[in-house]
Amino acid sequence: MPSLVAIVVAHDSADVLPGCLAALAGQHVPAIVVDNASRDASASVAEAAGAQVIRNARNEGYGRANNRGVRAAETAEHVLIVNPDVELRPGAVDALLEAARSWPDAGLLAPRLVEPDGRFFFQARSLLAPYLTNPAGRLALPQGDACAPFLSGACLLMPRALFLDLGGFDENIFLFYEDDDLCRRVADRGRALIHVHRAEALHERGRSSAPEPGRVFRARWHQAWSRAYVSRKYGLADPSLAALAANVPKALLSGLVLRRAGLERYGGSAAGALAFLRGRTALAREGLTG
Fold first, then answer.
1. pLDDT for 25-83, tens place per residue?
2. Which of these, 29, 102, 171, 183, is most buried using a 10 Å CB contact count?
3. Would you say the pTM of this structure is higher than 0.90?
4. How many CA atoms within 13 Å lie on the side-chain side of 10?
């Protein structure tokens, strides 16, 4: 009966899933792949790699799909939430589990994320961090295991019982800030967020899903909407008006000079902020129910 199960949410992720799943299998971690209605061979690639596959009829978003996977991992004491563009280096899983045993009160543990060019990715602050707030965002990279204000949702180890007790990821969020929100709720329970330096994972950011037309607009829409949503949830100032003021002129200028990339980027941010102000939900945009 596996005490650790990995949850991998896939959406058009066939190119990166083999590396992710092979790294997990090499460390004897069974995987549940929740496929968010991929249009490529993601589900069959996962099955060929020996993973259990849950097929969503629609793209349910990151948080909702992870929640479904965690609920399905009924034998697990811990769950390892892993993006498909993450490959855990040999020994990383053992290091994470050893850290979990050393600090049993920790709520979330994450490996050291390394990008393909060798850079160490560490986010030094979070909009929602209740402690270690670091408002200036000064980057001081940990040299060893350390408490952190935020842990990236790219790879997280967590007791399954705690995850379920907290209600999992907030299912009102389709994409973005769901990891900030989970980190905040874990910290509010008095549980630490631990960066485990000896555990290393390669993260090829931005490769979880294959490129598609309109992807940038959609991502920026959700980023702006989700930032406003979590700000309201925790009593912070609504950033929507500021987002409109910053992005509408840039979107208009991009349209005038026929710069599609800028129009998608800035137009998406403005549209997401406006949608939040008008009371439209992220789930409604995606044709989902609450």
1. 999 999 999 999 999 999 999 999 999 999 999 999 999 999 999 999 999 999 999 99
2. 183
3. yes
4. 33
